[in-house]
Amino acid sequence: MLDTPTNDGLTEHESNRELTTPSQNDSLYGQEFGNELQTETPARLNHTSIASPTQGVHQDLLTRYNHLRDHTEELVSKLEIEDMVVQSMSDASPTAWHLAHTTWFFETFVLLPYKANYHLFDPSIAYLFNSYHETLGPRHPRARRGLITRPSVKAIMAYRQYVDAHMRELLCTERTANPKAVVELGIAHEEQHQELLLMDILHLFAQSPSKPVYDEHGDAEQSLLPSKFISIAGGLISIGTTDSDFHFDNEGPAHKVWIEPYEISDQLVTNGEWLEFMRADGYRRVELWLADGWAINQVEGWEAPMYWEHHVDGWYQMTLRGLLPIDEDAAVGHISYYEASAYALWREMRLPTEAEWEHAAKKGLLRQVDNVGWQWTQSAYHPYPGFRAADNAIGEYNGKFMVGQMVLRGGAHATPSKHTRLSYRNFYRPEQRWMFSGVRLAKDSCSLADSPEKNTTQFARDLISGLSGQPKVTSPKYFYDARGSELFEAICRTPEYYPTRTEMMLLRQSVAQIVADIPMHSVLVEFGSGASEKTRLILDAAPQLSSYIPIDVSDGALSKATIRLREDYPNLHISPLVEDFTKDIQLPLSTTGKPIVAFFPGSTIGNFTPEEACNLLVLWRERLGHLGHEVQLIIGIDMVKDEGTLLAAYDDAQGVTAEFNKNLLLRANRELAADFDIDRFYHRAIWNASEQRIEMHLVSCVDQVVTIGGYRFSFHKGEFIHTENSHKFTDGSFRRLCEQAGWSVSNHWISSPISFSIYQLRTLSPSQDK
């Protein structure tokens, strides 16, 4: 949270500061800074030339500050001086103004309150470069920022260098008053202006008949995958942040919100879809538009998104890479709230509320969350319950704008990495569209076909079918609801359960060799990803991976893992799939033609019968081979070993495995209204030597009858439910399985003294595949 300084007298010097009135030579308007520039572009500042300790009191802040200021200068280094002083509209600001304003922010809110005897660079700066902090005094009108030709760009860069030197000195000095919170605010503030810079540069360049190119090598917006609507059950949820790390004040307090069942698109509306709206005369159909939106539409003559131009050969769009033909598969951008609302109504849908958006995003169900375009919500920008702005100038940062604006969520391709959070609330007026804004659709839920209720229905069918046979069986995939996933993680920490520790150790020892043959831009697909802990070893060792697709049946576990991974690997494209990996999974089309690396650790293949395991390996070979021109599978295998070690691993002394096994019955009670009494069953693990597998059973302690969904199942004392197999392999038996399924072993690694193996498989060539 922002811990604002207690001193509110930011417009007057503290009594212990002996600042002199700047002389003519000190002034931005003086001879020293008013001369014509000697270079065409401002020189980059070299902060390494400023004397400061290599290890400061606030070393992390200093590193972040240096990176921030360097990145801003990298952004403007592509511009000419003439580009930096022009204001293309009243909502935009000249680049030079951004450079000075962000520097003024650090000077005003950090250096003045926290650095003793700090001398202002120039007192006139506050009037020119204060944005909206009314409590700090009068300011230059926003719409006239383009008339500021003095101070020059060279003078503004000198101002930045002066403030940077003092900031670095401050961050290397021990102080009673800790400036960390307000420095973090200043960093986040300048990150916002880095995106604003690009917004304003694009708007400026779009006005030019020559259509200048800002960065011909800039990142294009990512191509889209086939979209789908995801159904989400309603209920009482929590939104807003409780994080103790930095966040803006408008992101809290966390509070409860009731939402009805809804459906939300997993990705953004495309240019091609928007063209259909235009062909349907959407911009001229008054019945689709809100009243104020229709009025602005008529005055402005809107007929397409901002920056679109119609030429004889079709539609083009002005971008930071210049004027380019419309890519129909890319996300539509630069859309106002009024346009987004009209489009949604035309599609007989709506925009999501910010609570719906945040809930879906936290569950890891959305693509294009924060790297394509900000997404309009239908929520007005109001304070959360319990919000109170700080009673000083910093309190004006967000609170004073909480009327007449609409909330956008997510982030854009121009948003600095790690700037946003899932609780981040951006806001703009509904008619504005020069920002990088897009559209994600939602609708009220008519069917929960893709919701947890669907899984519940399948769970009921499979459980009823399994208990109707002899012996009674269940599928181990139903172990892994949220509680089951937690218990399995606990099993992995028991002293008896060797597979996880042994495999992790083997992975650490061998990961460099394992990833050595992974081609550039490969896609990592993990089956049964769970918490994705082992995956991190692969990700850390293989920067050549471009994408990661974790697949798991547990929505809760997958959501938690995805959130953590996106924070830790911001440059990795992560597309989680809540799916049963034993089915014919449809992977994103973006994987087509890319090298595929499948990852299946944990010896989970041993949970299947030999026939099932072979069929699964065949399914993956065919599915992955169809998408990728090169496919490999990294798979963990538990080896045959002494019976005592095996039995202890599946029947630990703490009883965690027993609780994990019984949780299957509790899940049936929770989700299917079954009436299992778990105290009438006990956990049992046995070694089946003939099948070379551990079996887990739930054994009935008494004669009893259990009801599930209207079906009655009788259990005799001693009768059991066979809940899981864990086959163990020899090197020979596993190689035979691979060959039968059309895979060849290209390498393998084995641990000792407890034997566990990791195999690297490749698909057989046509001449080998018999």
From TrEMBL:
Residue ranges annotated for the Sulfatase-modifying factor enzyme-like domain, each copy included: 228-368
Alphabetic keyword roster: Methyltransferase, Transferase
Region named Disordered: 1-30
GO molecular function: L-histidine N(alpha)-methyltransferase activity
Alphabetical list of InterPro entries matching this protein: CTDL_fold, EgtB, EgtD, EgtD_Methyltrsf_superfamily, MeTrfase_dom, SAM-dependent_MTases_sf, SUMF_dom, SUMF_sf
UniProt EC number: 2.1.1.44
Any Pfam family the entry gives: FGE-sulfatase
Compositionally biased residues, Polar residues: 18-28
Any one GO biological process: methylation
Domain Histidine-specific methyltransferase SAM-dependent span(s) in chain numbering: 459-762
Enzyme class, broadest EC rank: transferase
Protein name from the UniProt record: L-histidine N(Alpha)-methyltransferase
Source organism of the structure: Dyella psychrodurans
